[in-house]
Amino acid sequence: MPPRSQRPRSERALTDLEACVLGVVWRDGPCTAYAVRRELAGSSTPRWSASAGSIYPVLQRLEAVGLVAATARSWGVRGKREFAATTAGRDRLRSWVPEVGAPEAGGPAYDPIRTRVCFLAALTAVERRRFLSDAERSTRASLAQLRRELRQAGARIQADDFEGLSRLGSIGELEARLRWLGQVRRMLSG
Predict the structure, then answer these.
(1) Other CB atoms closer than 10 Å to residue 119's CB: what's the count?
(2) How high is the pLDDT of residue 190?
(3) What is the pLDDT of residue 18?
(4) CA gap 41, 83 in Å, rounded
(5) Other CB atoms within 10 A of residue 51 CB
(6) Contact 24, 84 (CB under 8 A)
(7) Are 139 and 178 in contact (CB under 8 A)?
(8) Residue 52 confidence (pLDDT)
(9) For the chain, which has fewer Cβ within 10 Å, the N-terminal or C-terminal residue?
(10) Residues near 114 by beta carbon (within 8 Å), at least 6 away in sequence
(11) CA distance 85 to 30
(12) Backbone angles phi, psi at 79, to 5 degrees
């Protein structure tokens, strides 16, 4: 297979953001770019930018390569476009979902707190303890919010509640972060 840069645009690998936008359009479509933005903004994965500056260009790229199709609708003065996944889009999504062997898929998730720990030497001992307390407090608040959302969604997560299953993964990630922060605190305390 030719290198990614030499493949036609329609055959190159999707970025995770492109695949997630395609997935939302497939699952919820036909839907507007605004609906996609709202869905990503409510995700337990804060990595996704829900800005218009990121979603609209992604939808344009997906449309250009035939993975989504847009239909113009009347809506106020300007109108709106609703996107739906094409058959090719559904097929591409079905090939993307199981691609978990790639290093970026199975590796550590992006964690801004873990990144900052790399530079704790820039802080005094007192500032390090404050950083750890703030990181733990922030993580606990996010964890409490996810647990509230899970409770609001229903008493039990069903096997076909894929959003709920994803939230469980986010909860597990934050619980692991709290355990790790405790280890860091103990190691820095000496």
Answers:
(1) 9
(2) 80
(3) 92
(4) 18
(5) 11
(6) no
(7) yes
(8) 58
(9) C
(10) 108, 177, 180
(11) 8
(12) 80, 180
Cβ contact 168:108 at 8 Å: no
Q: Phi first, then psi: what are they for 81, rounded to 5°?
A: -115, 135
Three-class secondary structure of residue 81 per DSSP: strand
Q: Is 82 helix (H, G, I), strand (E, B) or coil?
A: strand
Residues 6+ apart with CB under 8 A from 34: 80
Q: Which residues of the chain have pLDDT under 50?
A: 1-9
* Domain 4-106 grouped into CATH 2.40.50.140: no
10 Å Cβ neighbour count for 154?
10
Side chain identity, residue 186: R
Q: What is the DSSP string of 35-66?
A: HHHHHHHTSS-TTS---HHHHHHHHHHHHHTT
Secondary structure element (H or E) that encloses residue 84, with its range: strand 80-85
Other beta carbons within 10 angstroms of residue 57's beta carbon come to 12
Instruction: Name the pairing type of β-strands 68-73 and 80-85.
Output: antiparallel
The number of residues in the chain equals: 190
Q: Which amino acid is at 172?
A: G
Q: Per-domain residue ranges for the chain?
A: 4-106, 112-189
- Whether 62 and 89 have beta carbons less than 8 Å apart is answered as yes
DSSP symbol at 109:
P
Lookup: tokens for 119: 């530079």
DSSP class of 80: E
